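Appendix B. One record, verbatim.
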Amino acid sequence: MAKLLYFASVREAMGRGAEELPLPATVTDVASLRRHLGQLGAPYAEALTAPHLHVAVNQAHARDADPVGQSDEIAFFPPVSGG
């Protein structure tokens, strides 16, 4: 099972900071993970499919084409702004 972590506004929208989910065989990269999560309904569709979200896989910044697997830790967080 993949461990999903949610931070900041994503955590608020999801109503939890983490969960573990089994990934279907069709989920092989970040883009397919985002599509899969979007199909799980609310709050996933609203919180996790926004194009501006950052994703990290095993604590490394990830892009849509980067692989994901059952034993990965996948974090979702909004862009960081500062001054």
